[in-house]
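Task: fold both queries, return tokens.
Query 1:
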Amino acid sequence: MDLRWLGVDPRLVDLLLDHVDFPDETDTKSHHAPSRAYVRDSKAMASTHADILEYPDSYKFVVDMPGLKSDQIKVNMEDSTLVVSGERRRDKDKDHKEGVKYLRMERKPGKFLKKFELPENANCDEISACYQDGVLTVTVHKKPPPEPKKPKTIQVQVSSPQPQAHPPTHDGHDSRQE
């Protein structure tokens, strides 16, 4: 936005647009509209490309994050969701000091965001991340499979037949003695 004709320094406008977060619309017509944060995150997720690979012992998430330094990337766990985010910024002060003027800007500054719901067998305690040549690789190891339950064998006791006691007769004598 060039506001030089109004006497406004364009660097000031850029600074304000970058650092001021305008509140969401409170108009009754748009109370069902998504928030600015939701729209911003949706755009960041749509523009972040990723591959998911499954290996016998792990899952790998390969995310394109070009133009970032490793300290600009965050890898977080939120419950069972892996969240990868980052932000590419333009150093406007440095550009201004060096007299840089952009003739075309196709690599726009902005956010990167991707969320992955992890399966139940993912071990959230064993996660590693490696960033090289603009590609972030996050490895999530799998939990070892549960050992199959061994069938429990119950020993059956075989007992020899015991002689049955005969019921006594009416006169109180054992019926075997007669």
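Query 1 returned. Query 2:
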Amino acid sequence: MGKRYFCDYCDKSFPDNAQNRKKHMSGIQHQKKVKTHYFNYKDPEEILAEETSKKPCRTFGQNGHCEFHPICKFSHLTPQWEKQLRREIEIKHQKAEARRLEKEQVRTAPAGEPTLEGWMSRKDKLSEKKENKESTMESGSIFHLPKELQNLGDLPPSMIPPTLQDLVKAQDVDWG
């Protein structure tokens, strides 16, 4: 069995050669499915602009449907669909304007004036962190036991937190 071509749009496979592929790609069913696929990703503004620039489809106007709808060169814009598209466009513009105003407010908002109390609290926090690091280095223990286990006397070796010296010694050990 030779190579087969699979069309993702149509969910069909057929023997892969230039003639078969060309025949499939030029078929109405394939063109409808490709057009429908890409239509789902179009912007409402783009759809409205395209549909209003086309002449109305007579078949769609008389019967309410057109067998060529996705690939028809005429417009299938109904008043309801036009109203829906205009509403979607307006919502999109409102969201964009809200985002723009929000960004503008962030840029133009004056930064809070630094206060002495704020500066002192940040300084205290930094000095506490520095003291904690220094005390950890002095005690030689990086790890701490939970409060519940600190009062117990004889802990198994696996529960005793390692000291800094233990970790330095362990660098020479090959755990391999």
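Both queries returned. Flag for query 2: The longest strand covers residues 4-7.
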